[in-house]
Amino acid sequence: xxxxxxxAGPTGSGKSELALSAAEWVNGEIVNCDSVQIxxxxxxxxxKTPVEERHGIPHHxxxxxxxxxxxxxxxxxxxxRGVMRAIAGRGxxxxxxxxxxxxxxxxxEGIFEGPPRDEELRARLTSRSPExxxxxxxxxxxxxADRIHANDTQKVIRALEVCFLARAPxxxxxxxxxxxIEGFRIxxxxxxxxxxxxxxxxxxRVVRMFETGLLEETKGIxxxxxxxxxKALESIGYRECLQHLDGAISLNEAVSLTQAATRQYAKRxxxxxxxxxxxxxxxxxxxxxxxxxxTKRLIENAEIL
Length: 305
Prior knowledge:
Layout: E1 2-8, H1 15-26, E2 28-32, E3 59-60, H2 73-89, E4 93-97, H3 101-109, H4 119-126, H5 130-140, H6 142-147, H7 153-166, H8 170-173, E5 184-191, H9 195-211, H10 214-223, H11 238-245, H12 251-273, E6 279-282, H13 289-304
Parallel strand pairs: 1-4, 1-5, 2-3, 2-4, 5-6
Helix pairs in contact: 1-13, 2-3, 4-7, 5-7, 9-12, 11-12
């Protein structure tokens, strides 16, 4: 079976740096596993590695959609598996890197996709407030409500849609018709740097994002004709910029809110990845020398198996 490497962890933990190094060691290609980096034009707020810093290493499933397009975990599963097989078919190693745990689980373990979209039902649900929708989900599926943030309207609506159409909680249906990926032996590495150090890094990164043009990037996306209600602009940083542009908050408040939301997101990611089985946890950032050395040894051992 072909080797595939997964590098996951909370935002800001150094996944991209480690993935680039690993790709150089094993003649690999990187498969993005970040649900926002799939969108074009969202560069600063998603901390995309600039093209000139990718060392010529191919990156897949990045910049593939416009900001108003929807891309489900099922879509990611199909596209990601296809890309991984194509990379292995070229005799190279796929390196899946990112922090969207639901995408990763769909890719490796399969996903229950549920009934097809019902646009009429979605329209009715969309007309209600996020608070109402999340409370409704909690009544119908408390487990799903605990896992899905109230501000993630798309996921809340999809969970409600499945509850109504399948007449069962979405979490009771998970596991049905799921097919794990075949043909690969997976080396799964999860970065878990110290919390306080990560929080400091995230706070500083948010400041740099605003200083290097996050607000201007958001304006540019709107200037291209995309609605402020586009799915991509619900992401952390962009939604705060939109609030500022609408006059609801000051620029300083936008920065502070983005910092808080980013830290909270990192906490949710840690919680999610604790449920990942078969992973090697590295209690460090991805760009530290010790992390490089440990990862090299793990890869060498995986290649021998």
